[in-house]
Amino acid sequence: MRLFLLLMPLLAFVPHKYYVSTTDMYYKPEKQQIQLVVRVFTDDFSKALSKHVGASITLDPDNKAVDDVEVLISNYFKEHFVVYGLPADSYFSFVGREYKQDQTYLYASFDQVPEMDVLEWSNTFLIATFPEQKNIVTLTTSTAKKSFLHTQEVNFAQFDF
Amino acid sequence: MQMKYAQIVTTILLATFFTSFAQETPQGHTNQNKFRQLYNELATPNVYRTASGAPGPAYYQQQADYVMELVLNDETQQLFGDQVVTYTNNSPETLTYLWVQMDQNVRARDGQSFDRLNNGSNYYGTQRSVAPGFVNEFLLNEKFDGGFKIDALKTTSGDDLSYTIHQTMMRIDLPTPLTAGTAISFRLKWHYNIPNRQFWDARSGYEYFQKDDNYAYFIAQFFPRMAVYNDVEGWQNQQFWGNGEFALPFGDYDVKITVPNDHIVEATGVLENRKEVYSSAMMKRFREAKKSFDKPVFIVTQEEAEANEKSVPTGTKTWHFTAENVRDFAFTSSRKFIVDMMNVDVNGNDVMAVSVYPKEGNPLWEQWSTKTVASALKSYSNMTFDYPYHKAISVHADDVGMEYPMICFNFGRPDENDYYSDRTKFGMIGVIIHEVGHNFFPMIVNSDERQWGWMDEGLNSFVQIIAEQDFGKTHPDAIPGLDHYPSDDMDPQNIVRYMAGDQDFIAPIMSNPENVYQLGPNAYSKPATALNILRETVMGRELFDHAFKTFSQRWMFKHPTPEDFFRTMEDASAFDLDWFWRGWFFTTDVVDMGVTDVKDIKKLGDDKRYFSLYYKRSLENLTPEELKNRKENKKFYEVVFEKPGGLVMPLIVEYIYADGTSERKTYPAQVWRKNEKTISKYIATDKELVGVVVDPDNATADINKDNNNWPKVIEENDFEKFKKQQ
After folding, report:
1. B525 and B405 belong to one structural domain
2. What is the number of other CB atoms lying within 10 angstroms of the CB of residue B97?
């Protein structure tokens, strides 16, 4: 019977069970780096990660039964946050994670990134698990700050310098 | 005399200065000062509502009393009602028609509520709220037939009354005008198909449990309810579109609810026939619960509820409730319910904290629901007035938080394996505190929710912070590993992301809830954060709490407007807050203050500024004794501050000296009164000033930290900070 999990803000209390992640993306040409901070709800991310690896994973506290959660998260990140048009010697580094209340903060970077005329990326975090998922990416460059919305229908974004 | 002389000199000098540079014909302007009075924004005080923010000598409010007989059909999921409404016109005017709210019509087949929605990809904050309407319209073979069916509308002597239904509002044309001070009674029979709550994302309806083939009913907005008539809106008959909640007059209720005889019911009001509807075991446990002030007592256990799930009703049972001076009535009914209760001592009054939940709510609900209700009642009572009703019920319904007098529906459900995350647990405790808190705002301090979402949601979310902190202190076992309850709206930094966002999708707090882009921050978080900043950083707890309590008590069981709140907060505190209300509530301005420069002024006395004139003359005024003992400051600095943000706020500064000591100084917001772009402050000290930090505790929701330090520090972003720790 349960057709939709979608929650509108018509409740007298807006529950936190809306499916939104927020990402800060910093473009730092002087460091040849794109820096990323992705904030996801820990319970939702646990589900998405479990689905991704086909095993039940509980984060916060980490499920010790699963070997090297860090590597699994890193793989998930790399697969679901893709930056296009980078040269072959650019590489992805997963820096780490921390739990803050009900959210998990994920830190990663793309390194050896040359000067770009255009930035193109897609963010499909959690969307395969939660069709209502919305991912908001805020890009900060030395001169601009702009937000982009990623959904099941539209998960590609482009920024021209 | 000497000071007077100096003032005159200064005035003349300044006048010369400003006029000598005027090349063109000067163009005037209206008062744009951030501290100007709020007279343009606020309604003029009158005999109904005074300039002090209190109800005036001619204040009145209407009364609507209801006698209702309800029948719940669990086979067809329908509700039938037969109600006699007595409406008393306490206004000085004569009314020729009445407006009645028909909230169920929001789901009528010809309803326009879902037609208004934009099916395209909206801004993220507004969400794509199209699913229920879309599915109902295009995917179901048979469209849901929602909305009220009127079976009869008659005078009490049996004559038909003429009425017109316009969407969610019904106008009843009175056969004879209702003059001031008189009352009219009419009888209304109706029924409607109860909607599936989750399908419709509705505030009320049923939840169907497939596993045991049972329904749980969360019934509200279920009867035609009188609209509010008052001195500010006339009839408050804005349509119910979905976001703007309700405006309701107070009244007395006598309600008989007939349900299958294996259902457990809870509702607004005193249960008049408890002995008839409770088993003897339940009665015995109820009496035990009345004596238990520290732990909940089960009235219906999970074991009994699970047995009940398999029962087949053998008839019906009628539950009889009465309530005085409430603005609404709601109830819940199911054979699935577990019930527990605990008595609460609210400053000497007994209040029963009640929880009602299906087994799906456990193992979470039996642990925390009733204790949370009890804690919330105490905290809110301390901030406002003693909770005046005899009970407060928390009912578990999935994915919703919704409030009614004495009863509320709350989310927080473990998964199939009984697992729940911290997010689920804190979400549940938070929502229960919030919805129980709504008993105070707007159930008792009865603001117009249809018009102003923030007046109940914002005030309530603000007190919620305090109630959550109290709960964390009294229930450390609920927050293992944390030193305080994680309240969302407590840290001013948490609102920065919203306030610094795209201005195209931000509305002032003083907006109708149907017109805002992001209802959550707009009606809940921003006003809650603003009031918390007002309390902690601007006014201080003592002055704020007295004024807030004064507002609550003045408007208890009455209908306040935003003006009444703004004015009372000032009237009871001697704090001119027009600048605060204007900035935070009437605009979408942001806080951004910073320090731009520190100048070393070596020879203060010789400085050829106006300043030196005062300085010298002040020295001349000292007695020889004072001169002899005066401090010999070795260092003088001029510190220059800037305010690129539109909001004016107190300027909190930390001065750091070479010897490692530091000094805090809070300049009132009025420091920006004459120049809201840049100001200077002189510092006289023995020590060398080596650093200046603006807003060192992040207490003002400053959206840009890059200008908060001297020497300049470009704040590292979250990524760089994290990487450094690794």
Report:
1. no
2. 14
Tokens standing for B317?
A: 């049972």
Residues in chain B closer than 8 A to A5 (CB atoms): 399
The answer to whether the Cβ–Cβ distance between A14 and B524 falls below 8 Å is yes
Residue in chain A closest to B486 (alpha carbons) equals: A101
User: How is residue B196 annotated by DSSP?
Assistant: B
* B402 shares its domain with B463: no
pLDDT tier, B565 (very low <50, low <70, confident <90, very high otherwise): very high
Residue B686 burial by Cβ neighbours in a 10 Å radius (0-12, 13-18, 19+): exposed
Q: What is the tens place of the pLDDT at every residue in B331-344?
A: 999 999 999 999 99
d(CA B409, CA B367): 17
Beta carbons within 8 Å of B197's beta carbon, 6+ residues apart: B203, B204, B205, B206, B207, B218, B397, B400
Q: How far apart are the first and last CA of chain A?
A: 48
Check CB contact of A31 with chain B, cutoff 8 Å. no
**B175 and B300 share a domain?**
yes
Same domain, B404 and B458: no
Say whether B720 and A3 touch across the interface (CB within 8 A). Answer: no
Place of tokens 């720790």: B725
Would you say residue A14 lies in a domain? no
* Residue A84 covered by a domain: yes
Q: How many domains does chain A have?
A: 1
User: Are B530 and B569 contained in the same domain?
Assistant: yes
Is A52 inside a domain boundary? yes
Q: Mark yes or no for CB contact A15/B486 under 8 Å.
A: no
Whether the CA torsion B328, B220, B355, B311 is positive or negative: it is positive
Do β-strands B251-260 and B63-73 pair in parallel, antiparallel, or remain unpaired?
Answer: parallel
Contact map slice: A 84-143 vs B, CB within 8 A: 95-96, 98, 101-102, 105, 107, 109, 134, 136, 140
Same domain, yes or no: B485 and B609: no
Residues within 8 A of B (CB atoms), A 36-55 only: 36-37, 41-43, 46
- B459/B372 Cα distance (integer angstroms): 19
Domain around B95: 63-109+144-415
Q: Is B678 helix (H, G, I), strand (E, B) or coil?
A: strand
Please give the Cα distance from B85 to B251 (Å, whole number).
Answer: 10
Q: What is the pLDDT of residue B607?
A: 53
Helix or strand or coil: residue B5? helix
Tell me the shortest Cα–Cα distance from B255 to chain A, in angstroms: 25
Q: Do A15 and B399 touch (CB under 8 A)?
A: yes
Taking CB atoms and an 8 Å cutoff, what residues of chain B touch A4? 131-132, 135, 198-199, 201
Query: Which residues pair with residue B55 across a beta bridge?
Result: B49
- Closest by Cβ to A6, choosing from B196, B201, B402: B201
The answer to whether the beta carbons of residues A59 and A99 sit under 8 Å apart is: yes
Residue B431 domain-assigned (yes or no): no
How close A42 comes to chain B (CA, Å)? 8
Band (B362; pLDDT cuts 50, 70, 90): very high
pLDDT tens digits for range A27-67: 999 999 999 999 998 889 999 999 998 888 888 766 655 66
Distance CA B585, CA B571 (A): 18
Whether residue B245 sits in one domain with residue B331: yes
